[in-house]
């Protein structure tokens, strides 16, 4: 057969991988479940749980892919099915206490990098020996990675096996992940090696190692073990702190092997730079996974950062302890895993029937619909995880299962029937086919805040901008999107009408939806227009203290921080005072993400808090650029009016609304 | 919808597998529609495939038939007429199922698993495009022997510029050292010298003598070869080959050209017809007396000549690096005895221009022998040396025996043989006349040659008479077996050509693509491929020239983009892939890493090392292989997965089938381009799904088509075994076996071993 004679199909170029200008945030960034965002969430929701269950659904679809070709999650699953062999040699074993060494030996082999993370376990047991304990070493896998990556059924199998070995025993664990799992997920009697050593308070020979301590999230924010490692390290070595520690510690940014990407790489570099800046030579941590990820920079060949950070070495906490106790040398050449040949076992594949409903409880449903999609968490997240995107996707799954809140269903039905969220029957179209612009007021301005509607249309008229509200426009679908409903019908209807002319929005929710979820439209926010023509408006002094509330969909989503403020400050006599948290850190009004309808108490509480602050600061007026924020804040304000930026302009021009 | 087309292949598959049962079974599978036909490769079969693709708007196709090595190209072209040519997966149910599984029920079940794996993989197949790249019309021919010379003339006749690189001081190869050639008894030089002259005079052929190719880089259509030209110490532009220098040179050493049957000076030309016709100083024997420099009127002597390195950019390469003789010294043949000579040495004695001017004189005393004995199969068909038959010896020994007998009717000539293999036009007749002339043919394998002073006692069993004999001879000629020359063996590492178990270079398919190699644009001709007579070398040369003319006929060639792809969204630019790529196919300088499609050789080693999974090899993606494992194990949980490298292991498995060896139906082959493509995940994953064992069938060490894929696989297997031991699954259930593409029995043994281990 002539290879050359094979006839080819029409040359079809499929080589070029689609390149985007930059990474779309949320596409590759993953949640490291580090809990750094927990303190900033206005509704204090348990994001970790939502992430985990959402991952269960994704895993079922085969969408969860760990780094290193997912071999570590596979190994974890296999460990649950077979019988992990002992790999520590040269230590004294007994039954004083149980020691769990974690998975380091497996990592050392599967990483193919000539590493010795196993040294931590060896050092820990030798230290226990030195302190007079001969532990029973129980090998196995705690299942942290499969648990946090959503392989929950496989985790249950593994957990059952581990429980047989560990139940009723007192366990010492070195690794932060194992500790968290055994303590909080298995509910076992477990003590961390950090605290164990602290309690034993042994005599150390202080080593001349310049150390600093990296808080693993599972020890730190998850279990608030902050002091023990520091106390021990200060005795055993020349210890110093980094800039961000304890509650504010920067995560190593990889968890469950899921998020090795450019973001986590940046975070890792930042962390190591902090360590270097502290003057330390050794970054000490108590989590194998933190060690591996931070250490990984030293295995990257094409990384300029790595060269600069070559002098920061990663060391396990237990190794420092073993070193200072004189029983372990962290700098020796040989490896600390000693793997015997296993007779082996034939594995029966797990008969798993994936069913997410097993894991959906009331708490989860509560958590899932508490999020206002304000994106405050994304702002603090070191890997820029798109939490609100995740929430929307997750809600979609729940809604498809018929688990969405009744209120949301009602809204969805109202939109389907009447085209607006309030089920109002009256059409508010103002056709003017010759108009250059389409004005898209949105449901709130149309049916609940006609002050905004009136101010906007009047100002547009004053500026000589011809506008119309065409017949047939329906709700933009913002609320549908946020609550996990399908908005494709709405997109179809509106796009047909909106496609040819620039569209001006009052509502930042509409603006965000039309801009992000629709394609091919020219969307403007009213503040864009006003800013451009502000000198045409005969503004007169308004002697008022004004506070500006940043709508989440305008601020954090599109960076509209300065334009509205500049407009406000153009009004003579205005004193613009600030909330404690502004711009990127601004607190949500509480209404977004369907919270106002499904969880009104939460929405009201958050708005009240905000308005109380305004009152305390002596504001005469709170101004915003989103009728929905204004509606919710206004509903929860006793004394201070909450108005749209255009109403403020109307007031300044002395025009009656 | 996936269309499954199952071939009966007459009785070849149909006789061993219940084909209608398979069709029925897969027709029940959701999203699958199955058809069977007698010969899928026939026009009827191909039309069926094309019709159904169109009629049912199939997403992809599974071809369950023979090995893709056999008719893969036909099906690719057939499917390519209706959809993307890569939207199909094959299920090899002939060589790797029907032919190795005697029990029809078992074979049917195995076929189900193989097809099911293919279906699962087919679900994830995507379009793969082609691209056009420019080609250089120049050709590089390595080796200036009879095959190289013929190919160069054929190619220059077609208008191609040829660079011929020859290791020796002259082109011509072994043939021009012969006396006469069979079956016509023509004078070798009478045939050879016009060829030499044609090559020398041809303006489109550049000859680089004393030169070797040390490195080949680039891609099909644009290879860049590094050539090192050794110093001649004689200025080629000035030397007139007058021979004054040779006459005056005081040195006399054994001549390599004459195979130590004669002497030469330190400055010499090997023969009067040498091309280039220039003298040469052989520095090891030169005593630097300065005589030649003094006598050379042309001033051509250059004692300070130095090696020179240069690069040639060529579109295609012909490897025609020839053979050597197997070294039989210090064996029972007693080659070190002066009166035991090789067939090639006899040729030098017989050549009228040779050291004895054509007289047969025995080396020990220069006397004419009375009892001449030829020993056939010396070093061939012998497990201690080479198992293969050297093909030409029966004829060349007979030719020499005839010529000598004709000139010396009184001489007693015996020829000891195992079998006379004289198939070919005019060959049997040639052999017949030899017997009529009185040459004694004794059927028996020579067991020993015992020196008896200057004579020799040849021990042999006469298998017709059934009696052992000790024949006295005063000159013994060994019909010595052929082995690949050093140059041929070097090509395996320099160009990464695949060789067989015999170390000769292996064609991509021994039957249907005999001069093509797995490297597109690189061809093999002559005895670098296997021992063969001159006319076959010439046939090869013609075919190679024709293949190259086809390949380079247009300014651009189309290449299939079965290459690695980088997902820039996931890539962290750590550099691991680029460090691993021996073809420099990953560009790391831009904003995103990028695979250079034309450089990528599709081994997939990069995708194994990527920590984030950003790079993946199309047609063998991580997910595709995983799903194939799923499909196989869903059908037969007890399977042993055999990841087989397409260059060697897969071929060995096919050969086991062709030989109708018996292989346990548990063994399920998954094709990978290179054993280095198999990730740790792939090594462990089958166990998670219940597989009983996993093995890799890789190339022999040092013979990886992709240089070091099998060595990387070796390291990975060692670590994966350890991790299987830690987890308690058992590292012994994962193994790596090395085998050449020709070693069917090794695959059978590996399979057997795995079944024993994984009980």
Model description:
- The complex is a heterodimer of chains A (657) and B (759).
- Chain A has 657 residues and is of the alpha/beta class.
- Among the domains of chain A are: 65-324, no CATH class; 534-653, Rossmann fold.
- Helix content of chain A is 42%, strand content 8%.
- Chain A has a 4-stranded parallel beta sheet. A 4-stranded parallel beta sheet of chain A has the order 6-5-7-8, with helices on both faces.
- The longest helix of chain A has 17 residues, at 600-616.
- The radius of gyration of chain A is 29 Å and the shape is elongated.
- The model of chain A is unreliable at 1-28 (pLDDT under 50).
- In chain B, 31% of the residues lie in helices and 23% in strands.
- Chain B is globular, with a radius of gyration of 29 Å.
- Chain B is an alpha/beta fold.
- In chain B, β8 and β9 (186-187) form a beta hairpin.
- Chain B has 6 domains: 1-128, Rossmann fold, CATH 3.40.50; 135-230 and 307-322 and 494-555, 3-Layer(bba) Sandwich (FAD/NAD(P)-binding domain), CATH 3.50.50; 232-305, Alpha-Beta Plaits (2-Layer Sandwich); 327-483, FAD/NAD(P)-binding domain (3-Layer(bba) Sandwich); 560-616, Alpha-Beta Plaits (2-Layer Sandwich); 637-759, Lumazine/riboflavin synthase (Rossmann fold, 3-Layer(aba) Sandwich), CATH 3.40.50.
- Classes of the chains: A alpha/beta (657), B alpha/beta (759).
- At the A-B interface, α2 and α3 of A face α4, β5, α14, α15 and α17 of B.
Shape descriptor of chain A? elongated
Please report the distance between the alpha carbons of the first and last residues of chain A: 85 Å
Overall average pLDDT of chain B = 94
Number of domains of chain B: 6
Largest beta sheet of chain A, briefly? Answer: 4 strands, parallel
Q: In CATH, what is the homologous superfamily of the largest domain in chain B?
A: FAD/NAD(P)-binding domain
Structural class of chain B: alpha/beta
Largest sheet of chain B: 5 strands, parallel
Total of DSSP H or I helical runs spanning 4+ residues of chain B: 21
Strand order of the largest sheet of chain B: 10-7-6-18-29
CATH domain topology of the largest domain in chain B:
FAD/NAD(P)-binding domain
* Number of E-state strands of chain B: 38
The largest interface is: A-B, 66 and 80 residues
Low-pLDDT runs of chain B:
none
Give the fraction of residues assigned to helices of chain A.
Answer: 40-55%
* Helix percentage range of chain B: 25-40%
Q: What integer value in Å does the Rg of chain B equal?
A: 29 Å
Shape of chain B: globular
Total beta-strand segments of chain A: 16
As residue ranges, the low-confidence spans of chain A are 1-28
| Alpha plus pi helix count of chain A | 29
């Amino acid at each position: 057969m002539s290879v050359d004679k094979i006839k080819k199909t029409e040359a079809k170029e499929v080589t070029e991988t689609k390149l985007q200008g930059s990474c779309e945030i949320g596409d590759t960034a993953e949640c490291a479940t580090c809990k750094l965002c927990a303190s900033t969430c206005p509704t204090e929701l348990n994001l970790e749980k939502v992430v985990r269950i959402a991952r269960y659904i994704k895993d079922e679809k085969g969408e969860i892919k760990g780094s290193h070709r997912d071999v570590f999650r596979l190994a974890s699953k296999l460990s649950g099915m077979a019988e992990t062999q002992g790999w520590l040699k040269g230590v004294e074993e007994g039954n004083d206490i149980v020691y769990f060494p974690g998975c380091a030996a497996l990592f050392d082999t599967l990483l193919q990098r000539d590493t010795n993370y196993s040294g931590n376990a060896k050092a820990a047991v030798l230290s226990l020996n030195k302190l007079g304990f001969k532990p029973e070493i129980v090998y196995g896998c705690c299942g942290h990675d499969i648990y946090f990556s959503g392989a929950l059924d496989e985790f249950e199998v593994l957990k059952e096996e581990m429980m047989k070995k560990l139940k009723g025993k007192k366990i010492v664990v070195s690794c932060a992940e194992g500790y968290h799992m055994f303590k909080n997920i298995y509910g076992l009697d477990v003590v961390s090696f950090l605290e164990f050593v602290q309690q034993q308070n042994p005599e150390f020979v202080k080593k001349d190692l310049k150390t600093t301590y990296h808080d693993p999230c599972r020890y730190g924010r998850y279990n608030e073990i902050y002091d023990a490692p520091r106390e021990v390290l200060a005795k055993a070595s020349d210890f110093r702190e980094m800039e961000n520690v304890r509650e504010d510690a920067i995560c190593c940014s990889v968890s469950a092997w899921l998020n090795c990407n450019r973001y986590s790489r940046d975070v890792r570099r930042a962390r190591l730079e902090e360590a270097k800046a502290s003057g330390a030579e050794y970054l000490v941590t108590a989590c194998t996974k933190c060690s591996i990820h931070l250490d990984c920079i030293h295995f990257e060949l094409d990384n300029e950062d790595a060269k600069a950070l070559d002098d920061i070495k990663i060391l396990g906490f237990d190794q420092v302890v073993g070193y200072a106790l004189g029983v372990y040398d962290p700098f020796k050449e040989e490896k600390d895993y000693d793997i015997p040949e296993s007779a082996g076992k034939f594995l029966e594949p797990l008969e798993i029937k994936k069913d997410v409903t097993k894991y959906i409880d009331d708490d989860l449903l509560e958590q899932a619909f508490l999020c206002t999609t304000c994106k405050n968490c994304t702002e603090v997240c070191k890997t820029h995880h798109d939490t609100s995107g995740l929430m929307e996707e997750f809600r979609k799954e729940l809604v498809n299962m018929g688990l969405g809140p009744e209120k949301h269903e009602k809204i969805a039905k109202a939109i389907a029937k009447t085209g607006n969220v309030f089920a109002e029957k009256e059409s508010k179209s103002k056709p003017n086919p010759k108009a250059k612009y389409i004005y898209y007021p949105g449901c709130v301005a149309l049916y609940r805040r006609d002050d905004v509607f009136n101010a906007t249309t009047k100002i547009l008229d004053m500026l000589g901008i011809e506008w119309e509200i065409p017949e047939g426009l329906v709700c933009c679908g913002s609320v549908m999107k946020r609550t996990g409903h399908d908005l494709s019908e709405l997109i179809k209807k509106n796009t047909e009408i909106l496609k040819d002319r620039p569209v001006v929005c009052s509502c930042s929710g509409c603006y965000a939806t039309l801009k992000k979820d629709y394609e091919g439209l020219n969307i403007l926010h009213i503040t864009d227009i006003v800013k451009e023509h502000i000198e045409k408006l005969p503004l007169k002094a308004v002697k008022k203290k004004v506070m500006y509330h940043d709508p989440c969909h305008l601020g954090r989503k599109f960076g509209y921080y300065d334009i509205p403020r500049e407009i406000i400050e153009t009004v003579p006599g205005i004193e613009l005072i600030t909330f404690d948290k502004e711009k990127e850190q601004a607190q949500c009004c509480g209404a977004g993400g369907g919270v106002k309808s499904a969880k009104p108490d939460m929405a009201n509480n958050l708005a009240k808090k905000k308005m109380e602050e305004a009152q305390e600061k002596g504001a005469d007026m709170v101004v915003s650029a989103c009728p929905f924020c204004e509606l919710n804040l206004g509903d929860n304000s006793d004394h201070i009016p909450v108005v749209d930026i255009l109403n403020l302009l109307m007031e300044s021009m002395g025009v009656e609304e | 919808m996936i269309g499954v087309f199952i071939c009966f292949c007459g009785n070849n598959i149909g006789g061993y597998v219940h084909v209608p049962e398979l069709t029925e079974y897969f027709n029940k599978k959701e999203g699958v529609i199955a058809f069977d036909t007698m010969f899928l490769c026939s026009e009827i079969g191909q039309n069926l495939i094309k019709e159904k693709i169109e009629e049912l708007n199939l997403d992809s196709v599974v071809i369950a038939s023979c090995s893709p090595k056999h008719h893969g190209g036909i099906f690719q072209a057939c499917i390519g007429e209706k959809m993307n040519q890569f939207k199909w997966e094959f299920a090899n149910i002939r060589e790797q199922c029907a032919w190795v599984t005697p029990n029809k029920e078992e074979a049917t079940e195995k076929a189900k698993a193989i097809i099911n794996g293919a279906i699962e993989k087919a679900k994830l197949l995507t379009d793969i495009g082609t691209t056009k790249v420019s080609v250089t019309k120049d050709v590089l021919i390595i080796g200036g022997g009879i095959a190289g010379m013929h190919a160069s003339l054929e190619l220059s006749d077609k208008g191609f510029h040829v660079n011929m690189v020859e290791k020796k001081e002259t082109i011509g190869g072994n043939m021009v050292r012969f006396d006469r050639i069979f079956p016509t008894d023509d004078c070798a030089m009478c045939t050879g010298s016009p060829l030499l002259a044609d090559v020398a005079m041809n303006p489109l052929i550049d000859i680089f003598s004393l030169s070797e190719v040390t490195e080949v880089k680039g891609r099909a259509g644009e290879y860049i070869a590094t050539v090192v030209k050794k110093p001649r110490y004689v200025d080629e532009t000035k030397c007139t080959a007058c021979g004054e220098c040779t006459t005056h040179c005081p040195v006399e050493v054994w001549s390599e050209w004459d195979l130590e049957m004669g002497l030469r000076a330190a400055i010499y030309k090997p023969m009067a017809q040498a091309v280039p016709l220039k003298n040469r100083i052989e520095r090891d024997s030169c005593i630097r007396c300065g005589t030649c420099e003094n006598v050379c009127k042309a001033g051509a002597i250059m004692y300070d000549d130095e090696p020179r390195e240069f690069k040639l950019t060529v579109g295609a390469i012909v490897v025609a690096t020839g053979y050597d003789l197997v070294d039989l010294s210090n064996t029972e043949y007693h080659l070190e005895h002066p009166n035991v000579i090789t067939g090639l040495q006899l040729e030098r004695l017989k050549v009228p221009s040779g050291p004895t001017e054509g007289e047969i004189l025995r080396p020990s005393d220069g006397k004419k022998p009375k009892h001449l004995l030829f020993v056939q199969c010396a070093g061939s068909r012998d497990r201690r040396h080479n198992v293969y038959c050297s093909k030409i010896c029966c004829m060349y020994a007979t030719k020499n025996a005839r010529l000598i007998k004709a000139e010396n009717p009184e001489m007693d000539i015996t020829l000891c043989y195992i079998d006379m293999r004289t198939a070919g036009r005019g060959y049997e007749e040639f052999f017949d006349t030899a017997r009529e002339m009185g040459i004694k043919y004794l059927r028996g394998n020579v067991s020993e040659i015992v020196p008896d002073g200057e004579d020799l006692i040849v021990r042999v069993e006469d298998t017709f008479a059934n009696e052992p004999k000790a024949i006295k001879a005063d000159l013994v000629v060994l019909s010595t077996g052929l082995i690949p020359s050093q140059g041929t063996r070097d090509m395996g590492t320099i160009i990464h050509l695949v060789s067989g178990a015999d170390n000769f270079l292996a064609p991509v398919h021994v039957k249907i693509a005999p001069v093509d190699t797995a490297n597109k644009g690189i061809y093999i001709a002559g005895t670098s491929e296997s021992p063969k007579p001159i006319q076959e070398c010439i046939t090869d040369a013609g075919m190679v020239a024709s293949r190259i003319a086809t390949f380079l006929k247009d300014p651009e060639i189309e290449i299939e983009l079965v290459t690695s792809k980088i997902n820039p969204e996931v890539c962290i630019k750590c550099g691991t892939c680029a460090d691993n790529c021996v073809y420099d196919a990953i560009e790391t300088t831009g904003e995103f890493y990028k695979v250079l499609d034309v450089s990528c050789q599709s081994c997939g080693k990069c995708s194994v090392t990527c920590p984030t999974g950003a790079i993946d090899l199309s047609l063998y993606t991580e997910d595709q292989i995983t799903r194939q494992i799923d499909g196989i194990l869903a059908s037969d949980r007890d399977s042993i997965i055999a990841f087989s490298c397409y260059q060697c292991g897969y071929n060995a498995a096919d050969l086991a089938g062709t030989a109708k060896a018996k292989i346990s139906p548990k063994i399920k082959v998954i094709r990978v381009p290179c054993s280095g493509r198999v990730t740790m995940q792939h090594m462990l994953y089958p166990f998670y799904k219940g597989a009983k064992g996993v093995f890799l069938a890789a190339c022999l060490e040092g013979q990886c088509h992709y240089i070091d894929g099998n060595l990387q696989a070796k390291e990975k297997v060692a670590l994966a075994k350890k991790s299987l031991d830690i987890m308690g699954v058992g590292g012994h259930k994962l193994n790596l076996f090395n085998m050449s593409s020709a070693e069917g029995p090794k695959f059978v043994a590996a399979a057997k071993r795995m079944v024993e281990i994984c009980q």
